[in-house]
Structures are given as C-alpha cells and as structure tokens.
Amino acid sequence: MPFKKIDISSFELNPFKRIGEEWFLLSAGKENDFNTMTAAWGGMGVMWNRNVFTAVIRPSRHTFKFMEENNKFSACFFGNSNRDDLKYCGSHSGRNEDKISHTSLNPVFIDGVPAFEEAKTIFICKKIYRGEIDENSFIDNSLFEYYKSDTFHVVFIGEILEILEKE
Questions:
Q1: Confidence (pLDDT) at 42
Q2: 46: domain range?
Q3: What is the pLDDT of residue 1?
Q4: Cα-atom radius of gyration of the chain, to the nearest Å?
Q5: What is the pLDDT of residue 9?
Q6: What is the pLDDT of residue 79?
Q7: Would you say 152 and 146 are in contact if contact means Cβ atoms under 8 Å apart?
C-alpha cells in the first residue's frame, strides 16, 4: 500500500479547511459489509489525554448502523482531487445501491477498517465515546435550524490509532 505511518506529534493540518471545505469520507464496517458517507462536520484534538477524532452522524444515515456495530472507523481526506466522488457519496445512500461502484474510489482495508486507496490522509480510529446531541443542551437556539427536517446527531469520539499519508 502506498501509505506511510505519520508520527502524530509532528502531524500538521488545518482542520477548518480539511473538514469544512474539502470534506472527508467517514467509513465503518467489515470487508464484506461496510458503508461510507461524506462528512463536513467533525473535529480533532485531545480529550482524556488521548488524540481523538470526533465524528457526528444522524441515526437516519446508513453509515450510522456501521458505526454502531463496529469498534473502529476511518476518516479519509482527499483534498479536492476526488470532489465528484465525495459529492456522489454524500448524495446517495449505500442502503439503496453500491454507491462506491459509481465512483473512482477503490476500497482498502487497514487492520480490517475500510478506507480508500485514493485518499491523501487516513485516520484510523477506535471508538471511545458515544453520546447524543440533546436539544436541551443548546445554549444558542439558532442552531436548531440544522434540525428542522431531521434527527439530532450522535457524536462518536474515536482515539486516533494511526495516521497514514500517501507516499
């Protein structure tokens, strides 16, 4: 595989650009049964003295089932090189079709975790926390606009086990 493991203490990226502007694919499952979704919300940092990646998913998303049933997940970043693929994965459900077959993406499995060969950066994470966003916990009620037509997100915090970059 053309990826090299990166020492997390020397890893640098702009999360606002990488997550919010370039997006990422969040994937979970096993080799014979997995799903991925495009995400533009999340975070990374340190929590409980661990390096973590935070993903938020609505229970209505097909990937949610895979996040619930598996202990590990990946977050794959591509830059703008696979923008059309990420748009497709974000607008089609794996519940209804094999959406990966409609993209130029090639799944790879790293320690049993689904990821993509075309990614520039891959985070492999182990779930350490799951919590539900609760409407009673909002301080800024203007954020309810994100929940007019769908359910509240579930938060998954994963300990970053490794970061891989394209060689």
A1: 96
A2: 3-166
A3: 57
A4: 15
A5: 92
A6: 82
A7: no
Angstrom distances, CA of residue 99 to CA of 34, 74, 92, 106 = 11, 18, 7, 12
Q: How high is the pLDDT of residue 72?
A: 98
Strands 43-47 and 33-39: unpaired
- State how far the Cα of 34 lies from the Cα of 96, in Å rounded to an integer: 13
Alpha carbon of 71 to those of 15, 127, 142: distances in Å? 24, 6, 34
Evaluate whether 74 touches 125 at the Cβ level (below 8 Å).
Answer: yes
Give the distance, in angstroms, between the CA of residue 5 and the centroid of all CA atoms in the same chain. 19
CATH number for the domain harbouring residue 125: 2.30.110.10
Whether residue 76 contacts residue 119, with contact meaning beta carbons closer than 8 Å, is answered with yes
- For residue 8 the two structure tokens come to 């997390």
DSSP secondary structure of 3-53: EEEE-GGG----HIIIIIIT-EEEEEEETTEEEEEEE---EEEEETTEEEE
Structural domains of the chain, count = 1
The pLDDT averaged over each successive group of 10 residues in the chain (167 residues) is 90 92 96 95 97 96 96 94 93 92 96 96 98 91 86 96 95
